[in-house]
Amino acid sequence: MEIQISKIYPPKQSGWSASIKAQDGNYYGVKEDVAKSLAEGQTITADVKMQEKNGKTYRDIIKIHDAGPPARPAAPAQSTGHYGSNDGATAERIFVCGFVNATAPKVYEKFGAISSDQLTALVMVARATWEETLGKKS
């Protein structure tokens, strides 16, 4: 059986098997020392013993015949900051969302349901506040 390894989990308790989650979503038990020799993204060909117990199928890797090289990890994405890019539009969006999230419950508490026109006005107030304070270019 060919298994493409998605994730490798160590044993939950001493003496238990490690677990491999395959790309197809199935889990396979494997001896801990064997699991340590495998890598996420790797495709292996193995003998698998399947057993039904209490309506659940358990799969255990008995023997590995071929373990291909691990898949090359993807290049790390360029970090653009915690909230995405660091441009002015993103900063404004973050400010406006925070402003609306903090203010809307108070408006609701005082006036009841908020119409889309009132919400739009609240967003426009937040954008104007941003522009007059933090959004000014030095």
Please provide a written account of the structure.
With 138 residues, the chain is α+β, with helices and mostly antiparallel strands. Helices cover 33% and strands 29% of the residues. The protein contains three helices and five strands; from the N terminus they run E-E-E-H-E-E-H-H. It has helices at residues 32-35, 88-111, 116-132, and strands spanning 2-9, 18-22, 27-30, 43-53, 56-67. Helix 2 packs across helix 3.
Q: How are the elements arranged and paired?
A:
Elements: E1 2-9, E2 18-22, E3 27-30, H1 32-35, E4 43-53, E5 56-67, H2 88-111, H3 116-132
Antiparallel strand pairs: 1-2, 1-4, 2-3, 4-5
Helix pairs in contact: 2-3
The helical percent reads: 25-40%
How many individual β-strands? 5
CATH topology of the largest domain: OB fold (Dihydrolipoamide Acetyltransferase, E2P)
Low-confidence stretches: none
> Strand-residue fraction?
25-35%
Q: What is the radius of gyration?
A: 27 Å
Classification by helices and strands: alpha+beta
Mean pLDDT: 84
Number of helices: 3
Order of helix and strand elements from N to C terminus: EEEHEEHH
Q: Based on the structure given, which CATH architecture of the largest domain is correct? A: Beta Barrel
Broad shape: elongated
